[in-house]
From TrEMBL:
Domain HTH lacI-type: 2-58
Biological classification of the source: Bacteria, Bacillati, Bacillota, Bacilli, Bacillales
Highest taxon, organism lineage: Bacteria
Record's keyword terms, sorted: DNA-binding, Transcription, Transcription regulation
Name of the featured protein: LacI family transcriptional regulator
Bilayer-crossing regions: none
SUPFAM superfamilies, per the entry: lambda repressor-like DNA-binding domains (SSF47413), Periplasmic binding protein-like I (SSF53822)
CDD domains listed in its UniProt record: HTH_LacI, PBP1_GalR
InterPro entries: HTH_LacI (IPR000843), LacI/GalR-like_sensor (IPR046335), Lambda_DNA-bd_dom_sf (IPR010982), Peripla_BP_I (IPR028082)
Entry keyword annotation includes Isomerase: no
Length: 348
């Protein structure tokens, strides 16, 4: 693509002169012959001003029609805003760029394959089997997976830095003097679009990193680790089970804020004080976490940023990037009263 510098070199004048001529600067003292030569060379080199290139790019963007495939249901999003926040980030960035989301599909319902094939790109939110996705949308270089639990070498992916988040939690609790630290979390699955196959359970990263880091510190106790479901009721029941241990932990990392809400209620019902009898750290930093009693220390997952990043990766693919990119988003530890420290924020 020709530049002002190319035209200046061909015409034998300065780049500043070319710029002023092409912008019709009447105050410039230049001969008509030179002015005509500059315009002629610009036409020969098919020069297009940057503003026209931007307009063309914006016009091309506005013609892009992408789809969004989410495993979570609307009910899931209502109960836990983690995935709705990712979706909000996708929608916000698309609106900023003038890109149309013409299909929002749910993996747990029947997917119209023909309508998916017509899309310019597809963003998949949640752990859906990549081979199944590729069956309904064969353009692998126009796929972005967000918050997928597996390793997807051939596709663009956006994930949270779960190891960084878990290290920050354990470091904070151990610095407060805790060694008996429990863990409550849910299970993770890679789901299938085909109803003839069962979802495959995979290792949940927070639990895996919790065990690894606790072992590194020489304080891991398997009896303090409980696996349940991603809901407030499950957090409530899991905490009840944890409190039945002969020796209970003095702190607990609960892998989602909705689960932490239930865990806090269980502690209150047992007459235990938070954080004096048990410190609690959650994960997500949903809106209600700051208004619990006591306010919840938690990991802020920048989920809206994850959604925006997915759109950016898809746009780069549409514009021709060939190599797959794997983006990892850091988290922020938000320290509140549920672990007994002064309120502050720690980015790690």
């Amino acid at each position: 693509m020709a530049t002002i510098k190319d035209i200046a070199q061909e015409a034998g004048v300065s780049a500043a002169t070319v710029s002023r001529v092409l912008n019709n600067d009447t105050s410039l003292a230049v001969s008509e012959e030179t002015r005509t030569r500059i315009f002629s060379i610009a036409e020969q080199l098919q020069y297009k001003p940057s503003r026209l290139r931007r307009m063309k790019k914006d016009e091309q963007l506005s013609r892009q029609q992408i789809g969004l495939l989410m495993w979570s249901t609307l009910e899931d999003e209502h109960e836990d805003p983690y995935f709705s926040s990712i979706r909000k980030g996708i929608e916000t960035r698309c609106e900023e760029l003038g890109i149309s989301i013409i299909k929002v599909l749910r993996g747990n319902s029947k997917v119209d394959i023909q309508s998916v094939h017509e899309l310019d790109g597809l963003i998949v939110v949640g752990s859906i089997d990549d081979h199944d996705v590729n069956q309904i949308y064969s353009s692998a270089n126009r796929l972005v997976f967000v918050n997928h639990s597996g390793e997807l070498d051939d596709y663009d992916t956006v994930k949270l830095h779960f190891e960084q988040a878990t290290r920050a939690v354990i470091k904070h609790l151990t610095q407060l003097g805790h060694e008996r630290i429990g863990y409550i979390g849910g299970s993770d699955y890679v789901h299938r679009l085909s109803r003839q196959y069962e979802a495959a359970e995979v290792e949940e990263p927070r639990r895996i990193f919790f065990e690894r880091i606790m072992r590194e510190n020489g304080i891991y106790d398997e009896s303090y680790v409980l696996k349940s479901y991603w809901s407030s009721n499950s957090g409530y029941e899991a905490m009840h089970r944890l409190l039945q241990r002969e020796s209970r932990p003095t702190a607990c990392f609960v892998a989602s804020d909705p689960m932490a809400v239930g865990a806090l209620r269980a502690l209150h019902e047992h007459g235990l004080r938070v954080p004096e009898d048990m410190a609690i750290v959650g994960f997500d930093d949903i809106e209600i976490s700051a208004y619990l009693n006591p306010p919840l220390t938690t990991v802020r997952a920048h989920t809206e940023h994850m959604g925006k990043s997915a759109v950016q990766l898809l746009l780069e693919r549409i514009e021709g990037r060939e190599a797959a990119v794997h983006m990892t988003i850091n988290t922020t530890l938000i320290v509140r009263e549920s672990c007994g420290s002064a309120k502050s924020e720690h980015g790690n």
